[in-house]
Structures are given as C-alpha cells and as structure tokens.
Amino acid sequence: MAVSIRALPGRTAFLASVGFAYLIILAPLIAVFWVSFFRNKIIAFPPQGYTLAWFANAWSLDDFRNGFVLSLEVGIIATLGSLLIGVPAALALARHDFRGREAISAALMSPLIVPGIVAGTAVYMFYIEIETWTDVQLAATLPGLCLAHVVLALPWTVRLVTASLIGVNRLVEEAAMTLGAGPVKTLWRVTLPMIRPAIVAGGLFSFVVSFVDLEKSLFLVGPGRMTLPIAIINYLEWSIDPTIAAVATIQILIISAALLLTDRFVRLSRVF
Amino acid sequence: MRRGAGPPPSLLLSPAALVITLGLLLPMAMMFRFSLNRYSANELMTQALTLANYARFFSDPFYLGVLGKTIAVAMISTFVALVLGVPAAYFLARLSAPRLKSALILLTVIPLLMGNSVRTAGWMVLLGDRGLCNAILIFLGLTAEPVRILYTGKAVLIALVAAILPYMIISLQSVLEGIERVYEEAALTLGAHPATMFRRVLLPMLMPGIFSGSLLCFILAMNAYATPLLIGGPTFQMMAPLVYQQLTKVFDWPFASSMAFVLMAVTIISVVLSSVFVQRRYGRV
Lengths: 272, 285
Prior knowledge:
Number of helices of chain B: 12
Helix content of chain A: over 70%
Radius of gyration of chain B: 24 Å
CATH superfamily of chain B: MetI-like
Number of strands of chain B: 2
CATH superfamily of chain A: MetI-like
Structural class of chain B: mainly alpha
Shape of chain A: globular
Number of strands of chain A: 0
Largest sheet of chain A: none
CATH class of chain B: Mainly Alpha
CATH topology of chain B: MetI-like fold
Oligomer: heterodimer
Helix content of chain B: over 70%
Radius of gyration of chain A: 23 Å
Distance between the termini of chain A: 25 Å
C-alpha cells in the first residue's frame, strides 16, 4: 500500500493535509477536555495548574445537573421506544414484500433528511395546536420531547437492524421451523439472537443521537427543563470558563464510551 | 417471499408508521398549511390561502441577504471540506495497518456524533481573545495584541468545516474502499504522473462519493444553528437561528413556517438536482 502513497508528489504536502484535517476535527474536543482541568477561573494559556474542582462546581449548578438527568432520561426512553417500534418495522421491511414497501421505508428514513430546525419548528407548532384542541400539553413536557426523540432515533435502528436481517441465513430459521418450532419461537430463539449485535448497536446509536440533539429539542424544552446540550448553549451565550468545559467533557466521555461500545457490536464505519 | 406465518407486515409496521406520522409527517404538512396563513399582531394567525409570506421573504433584501449568505457559507465550507476530505479519505482507505485504521475511523466518527454544543464550546476556547490560538500567536511573537477571530465570518467557516469534514471523509472513504488499487497501480506502472493518475483514474470513479458527501455537508452547513449563533456572534445572521427567533420571539407562525419551508426547499432542490445529475452521468448508484 505504501507504494501508492509514497509515489505521490509532495508526499509531505499530502500528509500535512491529512494531519490538518484531523487537527481541526479533533482540536475543539481536545481543547475543552484540557481546559476543564485548568485551575484558573478565567481561561488563560498556559494554565496555572490543574484541578478537578470544576466538575464538582458543574454538578452543583441546577441547570447542568437537571439537564444531565433529563438528557439521560430522554435518551433512555428514546432508545427503548425506537427499539420497540423499530425492530418490528425492520422485520417487516426485510422479510416481506408488499405494496408500498418503498414508500414506507422512505417515510421511516425521512427524519434523516429533514433538518433539525425545520422539524423542530413543525413539531412545536403541532404540539401547541394539539393543546388548543384537546387541552393535552405536549410542548415543554417529557412525553412531547420523548416522542420527538423516538422519531430522531428510529431511522438508525431500522437501518441497522434491516441490514443485519438481510445478512441472516434464512436456512437456519427454516431448520428451526422444520424441527417443529413455531413462528414465534423461531423469532424469539433463532432470529432475534442472530441479529442481537445490530439491536444493541441500534439502541446505543439511538441513545447517542438523542443525547446530543440540540436543534430539534430547542423548541420542545421548557423553562427550567433543558437538556444538557441546550444548557451548554445557553451558558455559552454568556461566558466560557472551565465549568462549562467540564460539562462538555462529561458529554464527550459519555458519547465516546457509547460509541466505542457500539463499535464492538457493529463496525462504526458501516453505520453510515 | 412470505414464508412461515408470523405477524403480518401491516401489524409490524403500524407502530413505527404511526410515530413517524404523528412526530414528523403530520407536523410538516401542518406547517406547510400554516405558511399560507396570514399573521396579524393582535390575532397572531388567521386562516387564509395566500403566498404573502413567501412574497415577503423573497422581496425583502434583509431576508434575501440572509438566505444568500447562508447558501454562500454552506457552499464555501462544503468546498473546503471536500478539498481537505479527499486526501484524508484516501489516506484512510489505503491504510493497511488494521489497528491504526480502525482507530482513525473512530477518531472520524466520534467527533461527527459529538453534538454541536460541545464542538462550539471547543471553538470558543480555541478562538477567543484569550484563547489558545491567540496565546500561541502571542507566544510566537507574531502579534502583540490578541487578534479578533471569534465573532467573525472566518471563525464560522473554520468551525463549520470542522463540523462537516468527518461526514465528507466517511462518504469518500466508503467509495474509495470499493475502488480496487489495481487501477491506480496500472496507471502508475504505465508511467502516469501521480497527479494525472488521480485526475484521470481515481477522480472519475470517486465522483459518486464526492456528490453524496458534498450534498450531505451542504445540507448540514445550510441548517447550522449553534455555530453561526455563538461563533458568528449577534451580527452574523444565518437562516436557522432566524427561523428560531421568528417562531419563539416574534410569534409570527405563518412567516416562520414559510422560512422553514424555504430552508427545506433549498435542501430538497439540491438533493433532487444532484441525484438527477449523478444518475444521468454515472448510472444508478
């Protein structure tokens, strides 16, 4: 392989460009991570020393503590919701041929195409309209936020599980049926265990997509009830200090851990 | 294809279809209907069937300017991401050390899914007056006073490029993985200059990846919210923050709806145009 790279003219320029690309991708994440340990309250380089105090300080602030808990709650509910409705949908899409299959598949993937700000605007007005008609409040409530996040996570679950189902050797299922297992038992004991990696990865991915969402959630949170990314953005409008860096670092650690775990089940490069 | 009983597909699909309908399709349809309504300061929204909101958007130089700026920023950042993405994707696709390769893929995908709030915080740390970039510039003696980087258009571009670059790299890399190296080697063995080889052999085969990657990046940049708001500062206007303001501060639902639809339309038009182009030129991909 080295042949082709070495043969390029200006190999240094090539490698420098690769290095620069990864520098700007990683620099902001490394920077907040570093700053979150600075001892000085006002950010200045180089730091006067290091401390873990900002993490405790961040936890003592209501917005961040509540935001963290809310994001965790919404993330978990979105994960369970998207698995609960996404796995059956994937089974239907991968295993059955019926009229309108393409259209339904496109509809289930549509949250990937509609920009977060546009979807957020639409869902916010929809919730308010429902409230004026039925007195059921959805805007700025947990159920309303969770419904929006299930929609956000669903395409990833459907896509991962469908891909995995298509790769399953159907002879194994047929063998189970021939040996006397009913359809439900075959599904439960044969099919689902075979696609377990995709289910786990779909769940983890759903959690990540929900946890980091900013644009769509903006419209659906209420005063004193913000998700973590929104709490971060609101704080950043006023100041940037090691406390907010500590909060961002927590998010970096959670998301990295979830994605490293996902990668053990389904190669991340295949998710896209 | 239906073998073995099991539940019928309609039953399996209906929960998901219901959630998507209630959580996205119906709200979108309603928003389109609202964009044809009329707004008045005391009644907020009145039923109507008018294109006045769209006419207002496309006749006001302010809104046209914001739309133009948004498109321009999205195009420039997509182009820069493409220029930076090609070498990085090539490096990634042709890397033979499996461990290094999977590590690099993780380092591409993890930032991609990190969320815009964290990334924005990072750029504010890097680009502020007392940020790391200025500290380095002053340390090197290149400047005595901090240079203003944050709250400029340049800062927005840098941050946007960094945000969309991982998508570009992943899109290009997946296409490059499917192009066997024998083509490159044949061209080089036959005496082609590496630059000629890239232009005549690799680039034509890479085109589908360039299109899909650029499209994705353009859409993401068009709809950026946190980056223009926090890194561009209050005077740097792009479409997404403007839609948010219009809805939550001005309460002009019809106008906010039409703005959201303009934003969506630019996205859809570019998707359709590029897929038509790619299909005509390269067959179905």
